[in-house]
């Protein structure tokens, strides 16, 4: 029993969502996977933590006090560390369904998707219109603009790349989005909410990029189609928080023979003469456990890891700032929705988005969790960058804000040394870039495209029906 | 198994049951016996089963067990909280010929009391009764003997009295079973089914407050979505028996 095999096909380090999906997929495909994490819990940056852990992690209380006690049982809280939602028609949803991980996780809709126009007390907060008829009712636009937006959304809805008659005379692979907006005569404020709250670009850089129009239209279509699936918003969210996602894929991996070890630190990564990875030395030791722990060594052909395991093989590409807030009320002007995404576009006050969720079994009744986040423009005054988002929240019971979080990406593809690294979770409000990364790593590591269709789990030995 | 033609249909509820216990104590074998009435002597560790289901007919209702295996994640103490989430019952298994497995079982019981929903029904099960020349419950471990791997020599090392006293102390159901002969196996599951409070079956899902109520398909929550109903439009509701 309790033995580590002398060799594995793949060693995976870190149990973030990217790593767990890859681990699950590789195990289903028959590879022998050893998956480790230095932490005592699954999820890494994608974990959901309880309130006591959050207070301690942010060192947000006076010594000797236990402020979390007034908020009920700490374990009734599942607080995400990354502010993200799933697009109901997005790729992560697709992977969840293809792998049957939906058996372990239940999802609920997010009640609304909102955008702010203007700032301060005169700001308008309104639902993001997602189809032609919503555009006609939206308070975000004047009467003539509504019609122009309706025409634009109709065109996007009917757009089919293979059918030139739906292109309205434009070549999207060449055009800039500005040309498209100009063609429909859309006003600046309309471009703003389309770009930021439907195409979900973090900045306005996309507007003038040649050929970016195609990407933009596809993003809007993803938004619109996701919206159409369940009706209230394009977003869905797992009960008990995002931390369920890595756990679900880890279980998938384990069911197909993947070996899991938490509380395990890597002592050495061994490379052969040609610089290719050939094995690892590691120690498993539970927190508080006496002695040296269990030391072991094993061979492997490849390593997949999150950036924190190879700090010298990654670079910083930006910083994310965020504040996690506990509220006891919904956000003003969002129709008392229990869960929302609210985007404050860049040109209004800087790029922010806030997010709340309460009835998703992430906190006790009567409370709400809001995460305000943005890409940091100037690491010096990062708390000021969140201010417009924080103001929008109203009264805040508790606020947790740390230093700007570096966003990493790998320096190399990994094909040389056999060490394939993932990217940090970016500032986008969904998981589409994360699933792009999963595909990219898979391609680099396996030399082929990832096909998730048909990756179903066995139906069990028997059906007891 | 389907005798629903008789009179009014009984109410039916799904119950999540998790298996816990040291590796090789016979967790999967017990389930295989219960679900399939089968036994495989040298079974490989479980691969490829998300969970198994089996119905248990009680006089007044039908309980459909959704049985989760650890998938080996217990080996290096790496079971995820998801495993315990909303489990309404647990089978904590030890091997009667291996005292260390009872120590481990006690550890799992403590873990369940810490992590699982309050009110979870826990059954402590001593397995491999067939290896014990029974009717001698006080046949305690003899020094210097290692029964592991020597089936013929394997004898009871954990007395009924010891395990039973512990089970009573912690308010656990207690059975000694043999997955090999089938002895007491269905009895364990029936006892669990009977012990699950009706309230936790009928009540609607509570909103917030993880682990306060059983999560079963009773709630009528229109914002819940069924991702597997792809192609179907509108807000898909969870299947519900009421």
UniProtKB/TrEMBL annotation, chain A:
Listed GO biological process terms: protein transport; small GTPase-mediated signal transduction; vesicle-mediated transport
Taxonomy of the source species:
Eukaryota, Fungi, Dikarya, Ascomycota, Pezizomycotina
Name listed for the protein in its UniProt record: Rab GDP dissociation inhibitor
Q: Name one Pfam family in it.
A: GDI
UniProt source species: Extremus antarcticus
Q: Which family does it belong to?
A: Belongs to the Rab GDI family.
Which superkingdom? Eukaryota
Q: Name one GO cellular component term.
A: cytoplasm
PANTHER family per record: RAB GDP DISSOCIATION INHIBITOR (PTHR11787:SF8), RAB GDP-DISSOCIATION INHIBITOR (PTHR11787)
Automatic annotation (TrEMBL), chain B:
Q: Where is the composition biased (Basic and acidic residues)?
A: 147-156
Write out the biased-composition intervals (Acidic residues).
132-146
Which residues lie within the region annotated Disordered? 132-156
Query: What CDD domains does this protein's entry cite?
Result: Rab5_related
Membrane-crossing residue ranges in chain numbering: none
The protein's UniProt keywords, in alphabetical order, are:
Nucleotide-binding
Classification via Gene3D superfamilies:
P-loop containing nucleotide triphosphate hydrolases
Top-level lineage group: Eukaryota
Return the PROSITE patterns for the record.
Answer: RAB (PS51419), RAS (PS51421), RHO (PS51420)
Gene Ontology MF term list: GTP binding; GTPase activity
PANTHER family, per the entry:
PTHR47978
What name does this protein carry?
A: Vacuolar protein sorting-associated protein 21
Tell me the organism's taxonomic lineage: Eukaryota, Fungi, Dikarya, Ascomycota, Pezizomycotina
């Amino acid at each position: 029993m309790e033995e580590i095999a002398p060799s594995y096909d793949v060693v995976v380090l870190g149990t973030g969502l990217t790593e767990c999906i890859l681990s699950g997929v590789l195990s289903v495909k028959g590879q022998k996977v050893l998956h480790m994490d230095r932490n005592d819990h699954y999820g890494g940056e994608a974990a959901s933590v309880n309130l006591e852990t959050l207070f301690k992690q942010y060192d947000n209380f006076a010594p000797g006090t236990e402020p979390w006690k007034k908020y009920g049982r700490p374990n009734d809280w599942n607080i995400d560390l990354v502010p993200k939602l799933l697009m109901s028609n997005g790729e992560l949803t697709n992977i969840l369904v293809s792998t049957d991980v939906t058996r372990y996780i239940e999802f609920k809709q997010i009640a609304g998707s909102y955008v702010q126009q203007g700032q301060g007390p005169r700001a308008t907060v309104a639902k993001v219109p997602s189809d032609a008829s919503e555009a006609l009712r939206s308070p975000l636009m004047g009467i003539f603009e509504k019609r122009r937006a309706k025409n634009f959304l109709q065109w996007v809805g009917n757009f089919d790349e293979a059918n030139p008659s739906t292109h309205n005379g434009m070549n999207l692979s060449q055009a800039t989005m500005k040309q498209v907006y100009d063609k429909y005569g859309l006003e600046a404020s309309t471009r703003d909410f389309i770009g930021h709250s439907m195409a979900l670009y973090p900045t306005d850089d996309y507007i003038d990029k040649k050929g970016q129009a195609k990407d933009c239209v596809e993003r809007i279509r993803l938004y619109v189609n996701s919206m159409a699936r369940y009706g209230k918003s394009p977003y869905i969210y797992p009960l008990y928080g995002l931390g369920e996602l890595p756990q679900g894929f880890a279980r998938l991996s384990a069911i197909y023979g993947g070996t899991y070890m938490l509380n395990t630190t890597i002592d050495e990564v061994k490379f052969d003469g040609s610089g290719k990875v050939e094995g690892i030395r590691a120690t498993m030791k539970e927190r508080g456990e006496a002695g040296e722990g269990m030391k072991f060594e094993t061979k492997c052909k490849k390593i997949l890891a999150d950036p924190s395991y190879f700090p010298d093989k990654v670079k910083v590409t930006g910083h994310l700032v965020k504040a996690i807030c506990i509220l006891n009320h919904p956000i003003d002007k969002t129709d008392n929705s229990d869960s929302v995404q609210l985007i404050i576009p860049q040109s209004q006050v800087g790029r922010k988005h806030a997010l709340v969720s309460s009835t998703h079994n992430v906190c006790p009744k009567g409370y709400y969790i809001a995460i305000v986040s943005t890409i940091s423009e100037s690491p010096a005054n990062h708390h000021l960058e969140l201010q417009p988002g924080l103001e929008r929240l109203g009264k805040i019971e508790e606020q947790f804000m740390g230093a700007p979080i570096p966003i990493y990406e790998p320096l190399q593809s990994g094909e040389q040394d056999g060490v394939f690294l993932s990217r940090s979770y970016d500032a986008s409000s969904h998981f589409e870039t994360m699933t792009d990364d999963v595909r990219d790593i898979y391609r680099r590591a396996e030399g082929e495209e990832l096909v998730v269709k048909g990756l179903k789990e066995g139906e069990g030995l028997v059906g007891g029906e | 198994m389907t005798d629903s033609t008789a009179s009014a249909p009984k109410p039916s509820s799904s119950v999540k049951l998790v298996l816990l216990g040291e590796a090789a104590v016979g967790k999967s074998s017990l389930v295989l016996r219960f679900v399939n009435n089968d036994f495989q002597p040298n079974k490989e560790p479980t691969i490829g089963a998300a969970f198994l289901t089996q119905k248990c007919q009680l006089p007044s209702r039908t309980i459909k067990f959704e049985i989760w295996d650890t998938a080996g994640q217990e080996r290096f103490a790496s079971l995820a909280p998801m495993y315990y989430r909303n489990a309404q019952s647990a089978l904590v298994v030890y091997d009667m010929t291996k005292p260390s497995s009872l120590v481990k079982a006690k550890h799992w019981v403590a873990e369940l009391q810490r992590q699982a929903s309050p009110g979870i029904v826990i059954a402590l099960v001593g397995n491999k009764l067939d290896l014990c020349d029974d009717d001698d419950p006080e046949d305690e471990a003899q020094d210097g003997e290692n029964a592991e791997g020597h089936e013929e020599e394997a004898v009871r090392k954990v007395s009924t009295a010891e395990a039973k006293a512990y089970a009573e102390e912690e308010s656990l159901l207690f059975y000694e079973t043999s997955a090999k002969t089938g002895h007491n196996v269905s009895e364990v599951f029936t006892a669990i089914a009977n012990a699950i409070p009706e309230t936790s079956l009928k009540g609607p899902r509570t909103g917030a407050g993880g682990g306060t109520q059983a999560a079963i398909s009773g709630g009528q929550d229109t914002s819940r979505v069924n991702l597997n109903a792809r192609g179907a439009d509108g807000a898909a509701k969870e299947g519900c028996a009421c």
